[in-house]
Write a structure and sequence with these properties.
The protein has about 220 residues and is α+β, with helices and mostly antiparallel strands. About 45% of the residues lie in helices and about 15% in strands. It starts with 9 loop residues before the first helix and ends with a helix. It is found in: Secreted.
Length: about 220
């Protein structure tokens, strides 16, 4: 971006320079003390005002280009760090579920990244304490912080946050079940903190079919 200047007198250029200094701190907004509203400014010829505006535009352009260089440098540094991390992780197999995590020595319950069979990486809550641990939580509800009245697409692909409440999604459950056999454990508490548990040991595909029936109904 640039401007082509016209010949003006030395006095006009001098006045333009003074006004530029006056304007620098108010380029993005004029207040009641703005130099643009002062009598001296309105006494300047229209040509001088155009010249002054050109100087301001060029100054803004220079500031933008300088900031862009800084941002590009910062982005380059970030990409270098990400590349370094990627190289360190290269060749290391990511766990497919919480069962693999506990077999690899992870024994503390919490949020962990797992890699779905098709390569998708997502965060899940792992219960590493109940019934010998290794449970990948497919639905977590305990405080009402997440609205579970959702569309079919959201129940298909999942919603919420593994750090609070979430639903892992039927598609993700299907991908997991298509590559391994799983058992289902259901824990339910009422408002008086009474607890019931159901533990089902059969093919997970059957469980998915039952869940779809429940959701649709």
């Amino acid at each position: 971006m640039g401007c082509r200047r016209r010949d003006v007198s030395t006095s006009v250029l001098y006045l333009s320079t003074i006004l530029l200094i006056h304007f620098t701190h108010i380029i993005f907004g004029q207040n009641e003390h703005s130099a643009c509203r002062s009598s001296p400014y309105h006494q300047v010829s229209f040509r001088a005002r155009i010249e002054h505006q050109c100087v301001i535009v060029e100054t803004l352009q220079q500031d933008y280009e300088r900031d862009k260089i800084i941002r590009d440098t910062q982005m380059t540094e970030i990409m270098k760090k990400l590349t370094s991390i990627e190289k360190k992780l290269d060749g290391k197999k990511m766990s497919a579920d919480c069962h693999e995590l506990i077999r690899n020595g992870i024994t503390v319950s919490g949020v962990y990244p797992v890699k779905m069979p098709l390569g998708k990486i997502m965060n899940v809550w792992c219960d590493m304490e109940t019934d010998n641990g290794g449970w990948t939580i497919i639905q977590r509800r305990f405080d009402g912080s997440v609205n579970f009245k959702r569309s079919w697409d959201e129940y298909t692909f999942g919603f919420g946050n593994a750090n609070s409440e979430y639903w892992i999604g039927l598609e993700n459950m299907y991908q997991m079940a298509a590559h391994s056999n799983y058992s289902l454990r259901i824990d339910i508490w009422d408002w008086e903190n009474n607890h019931k548990r159901m533990h089902i040991e059969f093919m997970f595909q059957t469980i998915l079919a039952l869940l779809e029936i429940v959701i649709i109904s």
